[in-house]
Structure formats: C-alpha cells, structure tokens
Amino acid sequence: MNKESNDQTCCQDLDDRRSFYARLSMILSGVIGALIVLPGIGFVLAPIFKKTEQKWRTLGKVDAFKEGATVLVNFEDPSPEKWAGVTAKTAAWLRRVDDAKFIAFSINCRHLGCPVRWEEGPELFMCPCHGGVYYKDGTVAGGPPPEPLDRYQVRVRDGNVEIHTAAVPLTTTLTFDKS
Ligand code: FES
C-alpha cells in the first residue's frame, strides 16, 4: 500500500513537472516569436503612422526654366532617413507656364506608383509599367490610373523656384497633405 502510494505521488509529480515545462516552453516560444515578429511589423507599419515633414526646397533660378517647357527636377525627400544616401533624392516634372506660373507634377503614377515620363511630341505623360497615359494637365488619358497625377505646390521666392515637398503617394489611396 505504502509503495503504491509512493508510486502514485511520484507519477503525479512527474505529470505536474511535465505540464509545467510544457507551459513554460509555450510561453517562451511566444515571447521569442513576438521578439522576432514585432520589430518587422513595426518597420512595415511605421510609415503609415509617421507624419511626413513638409519643406520648401529650391529647384533653381526662374530664368533657368524655359516658358512652356516641362522638365525633370530633382530634390531631396521631405524627411529622408539618415542612412538614405542617394535614395533620399526624388523628382517631379516642372512646367513653366508663363513668367511667374509653374506647375509641378508628381512623377509617380496614380496606379501603382511607377515613375511617369514626359513625352514632348504628343505632350503626354506615359507610365512604362502598365501603359497608363496622362494628358498635359495630368488628367488621365487612358490605362489603369484611376486619378490624375498629383501636383506639388510651387512658388517663386527671391528669383528662385521652390517646391513644397510632400510624401510620395505610394498607392491610389494615399494623397498629398495639401495643408
Ligand atoms: S503603375 Fe502606371 S499604369 Fe500601372
């Protein structure tokens, strides 16, 4: 009887220990899994919640731009990461309409964000990815883009053309903050 009771106590202890270690192992696995996955999720979601800085950037002297011409201009992103290097550079299509009026179009297609190019002859913006086409004023002429090209604000200050940088719309659901 005594031996039987001892055996039962021993088995009970063993079961308790096993279930304790099983639970401990599950908890540790969960913690390790979270430590691996959470930084990745944070990295992916951070740009959605981060408010992008907006700044005026100088593009050049007014006289450097010919009236009626649409040219590619390069400038630095509104808030480049310290490690961004050359990827901090972005671009826009700038048109000098008259003496003091400029229009700056985003180079990013409103379908999936590919860079559009300006075709001087037919006066169209063409997207190389899926055949999106935009008229001279940025409105959609054909293809999959659902909306016109985005525009940046432009101003002339002290003889320089300045562009108001903003976050690049990565998809058709994101738009510039015009405030
Ligand atoms: S990204 Fe321009 S048409 Fe698809």
UniProtKB/TrEMBL annotation:
Its cofactor is [2Fe-2S] cluster. It comes from the Bacteria. It holds the Pfam family Rieske. The chain crosses the membrane at residues 26-49. Keywords: 2Fe-2S, Disulfide bond, Iron, Iron-sulfur, Membrane, Metal-binding, Transmembrane, Transmembrane helix. GO terms for cellular component: membrane. Residues 70-163 form the Rieske domain. GO terms for molecular function: 2 iron, 2 sulfur cluster binding; metal ion binding. This is Cytochrome b6-f complex iron-sulfur subunit. It comes from Bythopirellula goksoeyrii. The gene is petC_3.
